[in-house]
Amino acid sequence: MKSIAGANTGGIADTQEMLDFCAKHNIVSTIELVDASDPKAIDEAYDRVVGSDVRYRFVIDASTI
DSSP E strands: which ranges in the chain? Predict the structure, then answer.
């Protein structure tokens, strides 16, 4: 069984401050977007994480749920 989890690492004000700083300094991340409607894509992303074969951050596309 697999699950999706997150962590609360700061409040809304802290998050906004970080986003404002990143926007001001043009700091962006490179991601690999994962289609949440495709269970195979989720499984492949998970396997790549376990296998240390991830170059960029995975982001699950919530619009496909």
Answer: 31-35, 57-61
Residue 8: pLDDT above 80? no
**Beta pairing partners, 61:** 35
Angstrom distance (rounded) from CA 18 to CA 12: 10
Q: Which of 58, 6, 3, 65 is nearest to 33 (CA)?
A: 58
Coil vs helix vs strand at 31: strand
- Residue type (1 letter), 45: A
| Domain ranges (residues) in the chain | 26-64
8-state DSSP, 63: G
The predicted pLDDT at position 17 comes to: 95
